Amino acid sequence: MTNQTLAIGAPRMWGNALFINLEVGETFSFLGHEIRLVGLSGPTCHLEVDGEPAALRVARLDLPQVVGGVRVFAADNRIVAGLTPTRESRTHLHGALTKDAFLCLSDPGRPLLDPERFTFPIDRSDGYNWHGSENSHMFAYLHSWRSHEGIDLDLHEARGGERDAVVAMEEARVVWIDTRHTKAREACILLESAADAGVYYAYQHLNAAKLKVEPGQTVRRGQRLGAIWGDNVWGHLHLNVAGYGTCPKDYTEVYGYALNFFPQLYELWHGTLAPRPPPLPSSGRVLFDRHRATTRNRKALHGYRDFLGCGWLLGDWCPADRVEGVNHFEKELDVYDSATNARLRKTLFAGSAGETTNPEDAY
To answer: What Rg do the C-alpha atoms of the chain give, in angstroms?
Structure first.
């Protein structure tokens, strides 16, 4: 195992992008430009690049902006990090954030991740189609006690089979394969980047009986790691990229020091960072907070995004960047409600760190 010597919170290169921490009022020089963090308001980081202002929401489902000649996205901020406590196994989930904001800077003339070196983590030869609207995206506010770690990719149709194989995003070494915490049916695979020592990829929910790799093996970009596990309810890949700290020992440590990689994943899928909204259906129904097996983990609670073409219009007053849902159970009745919906209350998430009040009387 590699012991990562990079100080936690120090500038971290991954591909063609640089992750940095800034305090409000602090500046950083990048490609001859001065980046200054002006302030925070909810999930939004207010920046200036050579005096040009910009407001960027933490990229839970947001794409980068080009500001003053620099492409930038907000990877995390202290307000988003403070929304939910983390369970013991996720103590350092927001550990890469050591100041007020964690930003990702890059040259707009280059991809975030070179497609000759990196690839999307699911093989597309079987016709896999990533919709990108999963409820459990990067740092999603799922409950008052949990901020989602990493990104879930829906593999409902692949569960229990061989199609839509999970693949290595880049050349890497298989550090370990852990089945001890998953009753030996599922496996979590940890890879360490061959090019960027100390960058780790955790692939969770693989079928332990259908793995294609072994610990210590070197894998190439796009090489099959295995198939997804699944039952009669749901199947998905839970993927995380970590950039700091010593090598995780097992499954319980893989969600520490997470790097926000939603823009990178989007770029690998689409080949561009331009919004590409899907065609919206002209008929049918919208399912909100019903069980993930019913909705394919699409619960329609998130704030509006151009690339999705739908969502709720929310402002900085809502740091969770989503409306409230019942979340499987109607808490007042303590029973499952098969007709659950979005809850558009004046005050959302009452009694939690995410509590917030809509300044308007409508949504």
So the answer is: 20
Q: Rounded to 5 degrees, what are φ and ψ at 48?
A: -135, 135
Residue 98 burial (10 A CB sphere; 0-12, 13-18, 19+)? middle
pLDDT given for residue 232 in this prediction = 65
3-class SS letters over 12-24 = EEECCEEEEEECC
Q: pLDDT tens digits for 57-102?
A: 999 999 999 999 999 999 999 999 999 876 655 668 999 999 999 9
Q: CA 178, CA 133: separation in Å to the nearest integer?
A: 28
pLDDT in tens, 313-332: 999 999 999 999 875 444 44
Q: How far apart are CA 56 and CA 44, in angstroms?
A: 5
Q: Is 174 helix (H, G, I), strand (E, B) or coil?
A: strand
**Which ranges of 128-246 does DSSP label H, i.e. alpha helix?**
none
- Position 261, amino acid: F
pTM of the entire predicted model: 0.93
**Cβ–Cβ under 8 Å, residues 214 and 207:** no
Q: What whole-number distance in Å separates Cα of residue 49 and Cα of residue 72? A: 10
Q: Give the other-Cβ count within 10 Å of 138's Cβ.
A: 27
Summary count for the chain: helices (H), strands (E): 3, 25
Three-class secondary structure of residue 229 per DSSP: coil
Tell me which residue of 347, 316, 319 sits closest to 81, measured CA to CA: 319
How does 262-291 read in b/e, with b if 16+ C-beta sit within 10 Å? bbbbbbbbbeebeeeeeeeeeeeeeebbbb
CA distances from 230 to 161, 233, 237, 284 (A): 8, 7, 10, 27
Rounded Cα–Cα distance for residues 116 and 41 (Å):
38
Q: How far is CA 56 from the centre of its chain?
A: 16
Contact of 190 with 248, CB cutoff 8 Å:
yes
